[in-house]
TrEMBL record:
<dbReference type="InterPro" id="IPR016040">
    <property type="entry name" value="NAD(P)-bd_dom"/>
</dbReference>
<keyword id="KW-0521">NADP</keyword>
<dbReference type="GO" id="GO:0043068">
    <property type="term" value="P:positive regulation of programmed cell death"/>
</dbReference>
<dbReference type="GO" id="GO:0004674">
    <property type="term" value="F:protein serine/threonine kinase activity"/>
</dbReference>
<dbReference type="InterPro" id="IPR036291">
    <property type="entry name" value="NAD(P)-bd_dom_sf"/>
</dbReference>
<dbReference type="GO" id="GO:0045944">
    <property type="term" value="P:positive regulation of transcription by RNA polymerase II"/>
</dbReference>
<feature type="signal peptide">
    <location>
        <begin position="1"/>
        <end position="28"/>
    </location>
</feature>
<dbReference type="GO" id="GO:0005829">
    <property type="term" value="C:cytosol"/>
</dbReference>
<dbReference type="GO" id="GO:0051170">
    <property type="term" value="P:import into nucleus"/>
</dbReference>
<comment type="subunit">
    <text>Monomer. Forms homodimers during oxidative stress. Interacts (via N-terminus) with elongation factor EEF1A1 (via middle-region); the interaction is direct and competes with EEF1A1 binding to guanyl-nucleotide exchange factor EEF1B2, thereby inhibiting GDP for GTP exchange and reactivation of EEF1A1. Interacts with nuclear transport receptors XPO4, IPO5/RANBP5, IPO7, IPO9 and KPNB1 as well as GCN1L1/GCN1 and LRPPRC probably through their HEAT repeats. Binds NCOA5/CIA.</text>
</comment>
<keyword id="KW-0007">Acetylation</keyword>
<keyword id="KW-0732">Signal</keyword>
<dbReference type="Pfam" id="PF13460">
    <property type="entry name" value="NAD_binding_10"/>
</dbReference>
<protein>
    <recommendedName>
        <fullName>Protein HTATIP2</fullName>
    </recommendedName>
</protein>
<keyword id="KW-1015">Disulfide bond</keyword>
<feature type="domain" description="NAD(P)-binding">
    <location>
        <begin position="60"/>
        <end position="206"/>
    </location>
</feature>
Length: 277
């Protein structure tokens, strides 16, 4: 495909994404952002959480959200053991990463790597690809099959709190493949009945990807040109998503399922307080 044709296709895809995000109704479900009292309590909640010496695994640490999530977990010092589960070993130069454990697995034969999923209290799943990169079947295979099998093994391995990065507008009955797959995997992971299951549905993720994706670049530029009050309803910085995930993890909850939409992610992710131990 020529460059002009590729850019035209990317522009068409970007327009479709924008239309989907703007027009798609959001079913927030159970789960919420942070109240003023919760925000003020975050430093204490983080310290209490650290004292529990919990272990965590991250799926998709090579992606933008997973990479930022790992960095923030290490900076906040929330877990006594951090494990990355992925198809290849990642290389880190910084001293802060020296104690990070890495389990290299073949996602086509995950049952053979069940031990990688054992002994973790908390799990974060940031796995995902694109239809353009993997094709329709490949996208479904990664975003649904890999995620679901990983969740099954995590549950069998003793994981109590499973966190799933999904998408705004996720709906298993959607006519759009991306939203349909995201909604389907949300529902099927719920059937596993984790002690606590947190779903995050961000809008367009605002970040500077290491991998250039023209369609996403156009969407980010579009939202970057809009008034913040409007853009924040349909987009969110990756760092805000990551901090929402961690702020949510440290606060106690008696809900079996939590669904945080883009607004709740903004509220919880922007909650301040002393982040580092």
């Amino acid at each position: 495909m020529s460059l002009p044709a590729a850019l035209s296709a990317a522009l068409a895809a970007a327009v479709l994404v924008i239309a989907l995000l703007v027009l798609q109704p959001e079913d927030a479900g159970p789960g919420a952002g942070s109240s003023m009292a919760e925000t003020e309590a975050l430093p204490r909640l983080r310290e209490d959480f650290r004292m529990q010496n919990k272990s965590v695994f991250i799926l998709g640490a090579s992606g933008e959200t997973g990479r930022v999530l790992l960095k923030e977990i290490l900076e906040q010092g929330l877990f006594s053991k951090v494990t990355l589960i992925g198809r290849r070993k990642l290389t880190f130069d910084e001293e802060a990463y020296k104690n990070v454990n890495q389990e290299v697995v073949d996602f086509e034969k995950l049952d053979d790597y069940a031990s990688a999923f054992q002994g973790h209290d908390v799990g974060f799943c940031c796995l995902g690809t694109t239809r353009k990169k993997a094709g329709a079947e490949g996208f479904v295979h990664v975003d649904r099959d890999y995620v679901l099998k990983s969740a099954e093994l995590a549950k069998a391995g003793g994981c109590k709190h499973f966190n799933l990065l999904s998408s705004k507008g996720a709906d298993k009955s959607s006519n759009f493949l991306y939203l349909q797959v995201k909604g389907e995997v949300e529902a099927r992971v719920e059937e596993l009945k984790f002690d606590r299951y947190s779903i995050f549905r961000p809008g367009v993720l605002l970040c500077d990807r290491q991998e250039f994706r023209p369609g996403e670049w156009l969407v980010r530029k579009f939202f970057g040109s809009l008034p913040e009050s409007w853009a924040s309803g349909h987009s969110v910085p990756v760092m805000t998503v990551v901090r929402a995930m961690l702020n949510n993890a440290v606060r106690p909850s008696d809900k079996k399922k939590e669904l945080l939409d883009n607004e709740a992610i903004h509220d919880l992710g922007k909650a301040d307080g002393s982040l580092k131990p």
